[in-house]
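Final report, closing paragraph on structural work. Over the funding period we assembled a curated collection of sequence-structure pairs, and we close with a single example.
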Amino acid sequence: MPDRAVFAGGCFWCMVAPFLKEPGVYEVTSGYTGGTTEHPTYEDVCAEKTGHYEAVEVSFDPEKTSYTRLLEIFWRQIDPTDAGGQFHDRGDSYRTAIFYSGAKQKKIALASKQALEEKNWFEKPIATKILPLEKFYPAEEAHQNYHQKNRLHYEMYRRMSGRDRFLKKHWKGKGKKNESNLSKMQCHVMKENGTEPPFDNQYWNHFEEGLYVDAITGRPLFSSQDKFSSGCGWPSFTKPVHPEWIEEKEDRSHLMVRTEVRSKESDSHLGHVFEDGPKPTGLRYCINSAALRFVAKKDLEKEGYQEYLALFEKEEE
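Its predicted structure, as stored:
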């Protein structure tokens, strides 16, 4: 059963494509929310007659992506300090907001906004509101997937509005670990497809509850729930947290035929997967510790991974 998330980020034409690129997102619908008029029209919303925001409704599979991840995508499409609209679009209908459904989404959204405020990347207050979702009205068909139906006009609009210029200037590189800060072993493993010594690495015999995330991007890759003692000398897992964030490739190096495992977002070598693991998958993801960073269960909320606490709550029931 898909979940939904609703975001207002200025002109809804520009908010569809970034979410559609995310694995696990089924559909993105342009529409209106936050106002008082029933069944509003595009003309009335733009004329500020309805109180509605232009917004998008994102339908997604929580097993394949997370609300936290969608929030990350949202922030990186907007100027979160602008209280009067977005770029050259001015007025209440172009303001930014996160519309939450239920207490869980509200908690995650507030934590995400607080984390952004604490980074002080913009040196101005964050103006984006966190609001309860009421009725969402889909926009007229002409405004659905506008980036596909009117590609040239859409691309010109993004450039002329100042959105692309702002995103490139203010968001590019933010939140990404500088690869020049990687250790010699991390570079050898992640960027040179190397292998660290067995039984002489950080996590081979580590079984504390928590997440193992990409050492470069922080993307959750594996969980302690799926970790097992394989005797091989490297961390071993039966499955990744989100298979869509993992890439598998044939590897014919060292006179062997193996299946390499890579992190999609950082395009980094992680290790290999073998078909000699325990049930239920029968797989053994043999991963280099140097490619991972461990986040303990007690630190998940503090580090912005609060959504993954549910993995461990299920285990305790």
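Residues 158 and 308 are 35 Å apart (CA to CA). Residues 180-316 form a domain with the Metal Binding Protein, Guanine Nucleotide Exchange Factor; Chain A fold (CATH 2.170.150.20). We thank the funder for supporting this effort.
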